[in-house]
Amino acid sequence: MDDFLWRALLAGIGVAVMAGPLGCFVVWRRMAYFGDTLAHAALLGVAIGYLLDIELVVGVVATSLALAMLLVAVERRQLVSTDTLLGILAHSGLAIGLVVIAFVETLRVDLMAYLFGDLLAVSMGDLWWIAGAVAIALPALAWAWRPLVAATVSEDLARVEGMAVPVTRILFPALLALVVAVAMKAVGVLLVTALLILPAAAARRLARTPEAMAVLAAVIGIAAVTGGLGMSLTWDTPAGPSAVVVALAIFLFMIGWPRRPTPRDRLAGQNRGP
Questions:
Q1: How far apart, in Å, are the Cα atoms of 270 and each of 165, 262, 274?
Q2: Could you tell me if residue 98 is inside a domain?
Q3: Between the chain's N and C termini, which has fewer beta carbons within 10 Å?
Q4: How far is CA 240 from CA 44, 54, 120, 128, 232, in A?
Q5: How far apart are alpha carbons 166 and 184 in whole angstroms?
Q6: Separation in Å, CA 86 to CA 31, 35, 115, 142, 252
Q7: How many angstroms separate the CA atoms of 257 and 267, rounded?
Q8: Is residue 43 within a helix (H) or strand (E), and if so which, with residue range?
């Protein structure tokens, strides 16, 4: 196998193992639009990275994290509804990024590469960034798993149990920002949310525990990336969008899969009687 294929495969696997567990929280918390907002604002981070002559991943992470913190701060003051605020931040960030890039006459940026990604063009440097993100995101997620799950169910209950809810409010968007930044080269800012949501939504049909759903979402993400690369090589389609198409196909297949009853389902059936 050629070197660029190995790099593409390893990069896709690295993104999938981070996006799968984090995507579960996006699905549980109904925060798909939040992920979309971070992804749209990533283009502003690209523009800032070029202007300041710094690594683009650093610019995207810094911008996405600043936007996430701004969202948390404004949400607490309840100035506008959350969905309205997300819409404002998402499209404003994308528009400002495009305008900044357009005003820099000496800058020539392939916007298609950032909007839709190019998994087959992943460099060794990109691979190291993804590996570093995996080394940070997975241990951090494992450390904060119980507080994150508890806060997802009920923040008040998590506080009563003595869990660090404020930490989870900061950590979760920070990890999302990191995944968006490193996934930008692979699937693009417009498709990264799909790679967060589709594997998690598909895994929800089979998993019976949060941990099982996280693992299964990562496995489905890896399968989607592998299938997308195969589809790209066979039919000469763009690799990033192809991975999303495969993830969609898996999700549609899972919709028809009979869901196994949980103990709660069986108890409810007994309570209803014959």
A1: 37, 13, 8
A2: yes
A3: C
A4: 21, 25, 9, 19, 9
A5: 28
A6: 10, 10, 19, 28, 28
A7: 22
A8: helix 32-52
The number of folded domains in the chain is 1
The C-alpha R_g of the chain, in whole angstroms, comes to 19
Query: How many Å apart are CA 16 and CA 251, to the nearest integer?
Result: 15
Cβ 158 vs Cβ 38: under 8 Å = no
> Tens digits of per-residue pLDDT, 211-248?
999 999 999 999 999 999 999 999 988 888 899 999 99
Please give the residue range of the domain that contains residue 166.
3-255
What are the b/e assignments for 26-40, b being 16+ CB within 10 Å?
bbbeebbebbbbbbb
What's the pTM value of the predicted model, to 2 decimals? 0.86
Do 59 and 182 meet the contact criterion of CB atoms below 8 Å apart? Answer: no
pLDDT of res. 123 = 87
pLDDT digits (tens, 9 = 90+) for 67-102: 877 877 776 676 677 778 788 888 888 888 888 877
Cβ neighbours, 10 Å, residue 51: 14
**3-state SS string for 180-244:** HHHHHHHHCCCCHHHHHHHHHHHHCCCCCCHHHHHHHHHHHHHHHHHHHHHHHHHHCCCHHHHHH
- Tell me the Ramachandran region of residue 258: left when phi exceeds 0, alpha when psi lies from -120 to 50, beta otherwise: beta
HSE of 17, CA atoms in CB hemisphere, 13 A? 16
In a domain, 274, yes or no: no
Question: How is residue 5 written in tokens?
Answer: 């294929």
The answer to whether residue 272 sits within a structural domain is: no
76: domain CATH number? 1.10.3470.10
> Is residue 171 one of the residues assigned to a domain?
yes
